[in-house]
Design a protein that fits this description.
By secondary structure, the chain is α+β, with helices and mostly antiparallel strands. The protein contains 3 helices and 2 strands, in the order ααββα. The protein has one domain (2-72). The protein has a two-stranded antiparallel ribbon. The protein is elongated.
């Protein structure tokens, strides 16, 4: 899902994968990042520790880009 959306909206997608134990350290919590698995768009947490639809992620990307989301588009 994420690579497709990155290509569609020409945005950089960064995937971070670490062993589960690294997400449970004091150092990680000090970064104030969401609990994995998670999706963030800039500083907005779209989902943390659960599932999310592509439409929700796409709407968030569009909001940050200042463009209408596909379901709100007039086209």
């Amino acid at each position: 899902m994420m690579p497709r959306l990155g290509a569609k909206y020409d945005v950089e997608i960064e995937t971070v994968s670490k062993p589960k134990a690294e997400y449970q350290t004091d150092a990680y919590f000090a970064l104030d990042l969401p609990v994995a698995p998670a999706i963030m768009v800039e500083d907005e947490i779209v989902v943390e520790g659960g599932n999310v639809s592509q439409a929700e992620v796409e709407a968030c990307i569009c909001r940050h880009l200042g463009i209408p989301s596909p379901e709100n588009s007039e086209f």
